[in-house]
Amino acid sequence: MLKLSDITKSFGERCVLSGVSLSLEKGDVAVLSGISGGGKTTLLRIAAGLEKADSGFVEKDGTVAVVFAEARLFPSVSVLENVTCVMRGDKRENVKRAEKLLSMLGLSDAKDLYPREISSGMAARVSIARALAYDADIYLLDEPLKSLDEALKMQVMQDLKEFFKTKAVLIISHDEAEAEMLATVRYRLCDSVLMKIEKDEP
Amino acid sequence: MVKNKTIKAFIRGAICFAFWMAVWYILSAALGRALVLPTPFAVFGRLLSLLPTADFWLACLGSVLRIFVGLIAGILTGVLLASLCAVSKLMEAIFEPLVTVIKATPVASIIILMLFIMAKSAVPMVAALLMVIPIVFGNVKKGITSVPVDLSEVAEMYDFGFGKRMKYLVLPSVLPYFSAACRSALGLAWKAGIAAEVICYPKYSIGANLNNAKVYLESEELYAWTIVVIVISVLIEKGVVSLLDLVMKKGGVSRAEAL
């Protein structure tokens, strides 16, 4: 579904990705960790097609949804419309589904508010709801749950785990619990090289 | 509470009006030359005598229509040119110098040039149009190019078509700039249009009446028509600003946010 082959990327003299290869199939949830500024977001952007690699190939088979590190909501429309705007098909059905997703993320009361009227944590959850509403084949998420409190995070992770069963997913996360719960495979980006973390490795 | 505020605002306005009328009266009395500065009583008396005549209303209607057509045409042309130039470097290379030339040309030169090539009744329209184009062009182009890159990426990721891009990205970005442009353009179009009427002397126009008053040395009438110009300008501006605020509200952008 998503295949990155021998990706290399430098910013000036600084090489952030060196020969990175990664392949994700339906049902794979890869959690990627690594130091800040180590190239994780760059890798995600290259996978999404938002940035060009210096060399290497990206192959995608299916639609892609991205949850960026920032919420990136459209300020001129309500929370609900920020979710429905990515959906196609019957409007009433879309609204119902969007409301269900917002409820899942604890945002039922915020659906009619505008992005300027909600907290950054709530905005981050809206961006997750938007990505899920798109119902893509491939999901790329940049620290999506970092603004959630523990109780809500557990509940959302349960729902995401179920949702991701039929998707190919790449999540950037430093959260051990998140990785434990969601990952089918774990990677670490270290000195521009991607390394697979074996199950018993810390 | 609201009623109290309205009454206070009315009293403040009345005091302000009375103050400036007093200043006008004192200056007029001190100068002692009615031809240069008639008293406010004489001017408002003349204005009251103009109000019941059909020619007065026809002149007002003629000027408003003429300049409004120029204003709307200028806004449409400005938006069209800005859109073309924002999406195509070639179009920008072709049209940007033209807009710069229009912007730099004095309005009097434009009016006199136009007199050579078109009917005099059309000149105020074209003068208003040409005054409006550079303002709308510059603002709308800036609005289009100010669409946030991060939101463009979201639109790209979720495969937004033209309609959705316009609704969620372009319009919210352009509307505040467009609104500011319209407010500036309005006053300029009105002044340029009236100036063109003074020079071109079209039938049923405020400008022609201003010119007549000047030729026949009727100072009271000259001042009366000037007051009419100011009042219409203020009324149109209030109307257009309310309309723009409504459009921006519908587009999810408040004026406070925009400015």
Q: Total domains of chain B, how many?
A: 1
Helix and strand content put the structural class of chain B at mainly alpha
What's the helical proportion of residues of chain A? 25-40%
Number of strands of chain B: 0
Task: Work out the count of structural domains of chain A.
Answer: 2
CATH architecture of the largest domain in chain A: 3-Layer(aba) Sandwich
* Biggest interface found: A-B, 18 and 17 residues
Rounded mean pLDDT score of chain A: 91
CATH architecture of chain B: Orthogonal Bundle
The proportion of residues in beta strands of chain B is under 5%
Shape field of chain A: globular
What brief labels describe this structure?
heterodimer; A: 202 residues; alpha/beta; Rossmann fold; three-stranded antiparallel β-sheet; 6 helices; 9 strands; 29% strand; B: 259 residues; MetI-like fold; disordered C terminus
Task: Explain what the structure shows.
The complex is a heterodimer of chains A (202) and B (259). By secondary structure, chain A is α/β, with parallel strands linked by helices. Chain A has 2 domains: 1-63 and 136-202, 3-Layer(aba) Sandwich (Rossmann fold), CATH 3.40.50.300; 77-135. Helix content of chain A is 32%, strand content 29%. In chain A, the strands form 2 sheets. A 6-stranded mixed β-sheet of chain A has the order 5-6-7-3-8-9, sandwiched between helices. In chain A, strands 2-1-4 form a 3-stranded antiparallel β-sheet, covered by helices on one side. In chain A, α3 (91-104) packs across α4 (120-134). The model of chain A has no long low-confidence stretch (mean pLDDT 91). By secondary structure, chain B is mostly helical. Chain B contains 11 helices and no strands. In chain B, α3 crosses α8, α5 packs across α6 (123-145) and α6 (123-145) packs antiparallel against α8. The longest helix of chain B is centred in the C-terminal third of the chain and has 39 residues, at 162-200. Chain B is globular, with a radius of gyration of 22 Å. The relative contact order of chain B is 0.12. Residues 254-259 of chain B have low confidence and may be disordered. The chains are: A alpha/beta (202), B mainly alpha (259). The A-B interface holds A 48, 50, 63-66, 68, 70, 72, 74-77, 85-86, 114, 130, 134 and B 150-151, 153-154, 156-160, 164, 168-169, 171-172, 251-253.
